[in-house]
Amino acid sequence: MWKFLLFIAAVIIWPTSAQEGSVRLVGGSGAHEGRVEVFHDNQWGTICDDGWDIADARVVCRQLGYPGADEAKVFSFFGEGTGRIWLFDVRCVGNETSISQCWHRGWGYHHCNHREDSGVVCTLDDCASSPCAHGICTDGHMSYTCSCENGWTGTNCDHNIDECLSSPCIHGTCIDEVATYTCSCELGWTGHDCDQVEDCSTSPCAHGICTDGVPSFTCSCENGWTGLKCDQDIDECASNPCWLGGTCLDHVNGYSCVCPKDATGKHCETGPLHWLEGEPSSPVDMCVLLDSSNSYQAKTVFCTEQHNYICQSALKSCAPNVCQNGGNCTSCFGGSTTFCDCPGGFGGNLCEINIDEYASSPCQNGGICIDDLNTYHCICPTGFQGDNCELDIDLCSPDPCPSGFTCQDVGSSIYCLG
C-alpha cells in the first residue's frame, strides 16, 4: 500500500518543461523534420494524417521558429508513435501561431491508428552558416546558391580565379592578384600587358638623352648619373676623396670637402706647415722658403732674395652653409676648400660637436662644475670662492671669538682656542 502511494506521488510532481499545446518533431534526420507530437493534458501524443496538408505543416514549423515548411508527410513517414493520438482532421487556415488554434475534431477524438501519424519537413535557412566565403548567399528549397565576387569561383566562392592562366603578359611575367593581375615587363616593353615597345616617346631617360633602338632604347646619361634609365645619382664620395679627416659632401656630378682647421685644398690634402729648422724664438725679418730640394718643406730664411711664395686667397661665404649650430661657412681658392668657423662651445668639421667645458675639471677644492654654452661656472663648497673655487675664505677675519680666545680656520669650520 505504501509503495503504491509513493508511486502516485512521484507521478504527480514529475517536472516537465513542456507547456500545453507545445509541439515537437521526432524521428527525423535533423531538428527541422520528424513526426509531429503535441503536448496536451501532461502527455505527448500524435496527430492523425486525415486532411493533413502543407498549410497545417506551415503552422507547426512556424510554431517551432522555422520560416516555413517544405513538405507535409503522412502514413507515419518518420515512424509510428506511441501513446495517445490527440488530434484528427486538422484544418489550418495558415495564419495561426500554434497547431492548437487550428480547427480540429476535439482533443482525443479520432478513428485512426499510429500507422497514420503526421509529419513535417520545415524550411531551413541554408544561408545561416554563411557558406559563401567571397559572395552573396541566396537561400533555396533545401539548398542555397552563391553569387561570387569578382575573382572568386566555386560552389562556396572559395577558389581564387588565376587570372594569369590566360598568359596575358605578352613580354613579361604575370603576377596573379584577387580579381586582377599585374605584369612585370621585360626590358624594352611597357603597357599593362607588356605589349607596347618602350621607346623614347615615353621619355624613359630621367637624366640623359634617349636613342631609339630595336627592340629597346638606350640612354646616354648626364654627368653624375648612371643606370639603364639614368635615374641613379653617382655617389662621388664613395671613394673617400677627402683627406686629413675632411667631411665629403656629395653633389650631382661632383663633391666638396669640408676640411678641419689647418687643412686646405680641394681634398684637404695640405696640412699645417712645419718648420724644418725650428720656429724662431723672437720676431725677425724672415721669409718662408718652400725648399724644393727637401720635399718642399717650409724653412725660415732671411729675406735677401725672392723665393717661392705661399699662395693665399680671399675668403668668401659658402652657399649653402653646411655648418651646424650657427657656424659660419667660408671658402677659398674658388670654393675648392671649405671651412667652418664654429661659435663658442662647438667644434668639429661641421661644428657638430658640443664641447664639454668641464671635461678638464676646472673647479678646485671640491667645487661642482656646471657646463654652459661656451663656458661654465663653479658651485663652491663652504669656505671657498673665486671663478674656480681657488680662493680660501678666511673665516677668522673678522675674528668671531670672544676676548682671550684664538680663532683657528680649519676647512669650512672655525675653532676658538682658549
UniProtKB/TrEMBL annotation:
CDD domains reported for this sequence: CLECT, EGF_CA
GO cellular component, one term: membrane
A Pfam family that the UniProt record links to this protein: EGF
GO MF, any single term: calcium ion binding
Domain EGF-like stretches: 123-158, 160-195, 196-231, 233-269, 314-352, 354-390
Signal peptide: 1-18
Tagged with keyword GTP-binding: no
Cysteine disulfide links: 48-112, 61-122, 92-102, 127-137, 148-157, 164-174, 185-194, 200-210, 221-230, 259-268, 323-340, 342-351, 380-389
PROSITE patterns from the UniProt entry: ASX_HYDROXYL, EGF_1, EGF_2, EGF_3, EGF_CA, SRCR_1, SRCR_2
Highest taxon of source: Eukaryota
This protein's UniProt keywords: Disulfide bond, EGF-like domain, Glycoprotein, Repeat, Signal
Record-annotated SRCR domain positions: 23-123
InterPro entries attached to this UniProt entry: C-type_lectin-like/link_sf (IPR016186), EGF (IPR000742), EGF-like_Ca-bd_dom (IPR001881), EGF-like_CS (IPR013032), EGF-type_Asp/Asn_hydroxyl_site (IPR000152), EGF_Ca-bd_CS (IPR018097), Notch_Cell-Fate_Det (IPR051022), SRCR (IPR001190)
Record's protein name: Uncharacterized protein
